[in-house]
Design goal:
The protein is mainly β. The protein is built from two helices and eight strands, in the order βββαββββαβ. It has a single domain, classed as Immunoglobulin-like. The longest helix has 8 residues.
Length: 128
Amino acid sequence: MAVAVLIGQSKHATNDFNHEIYCGTFLVGPGTYVPGGLALDSFLLAYLLPKSNSKPLSVQLWSTEGSGYIYQRIELTGTMMVLQVPLTGSLTTAAPLVELLAGNTLSAVQADTIRFEARYRRNAFVAP
């Protein structure tokens, strides 16, 4: 089965002198999960078309459906990692969250709507 992709659902942008801030939602399409997460920065670049020549300064992700999954952007790789409580742990233990297993079909994640807020630095204006 192919690797899952992200599918844009809604977006809104606001700008100030130095930054562009985008808010919106997206879904995870059919496919499997790969270690390290799903391509996020490249998806946001194609979906939002920011006026920036750099990667996002920050991206916050959260579930709107209360799925129980934690979505986290890994800045170094530009991916979205999906985390969950370990099978042997609970929310009352000090155990860290764990990444979904490689090859997971993501059926529960596909039923979720993921909200995001992405902040980019605007390109500086250069006079001709």
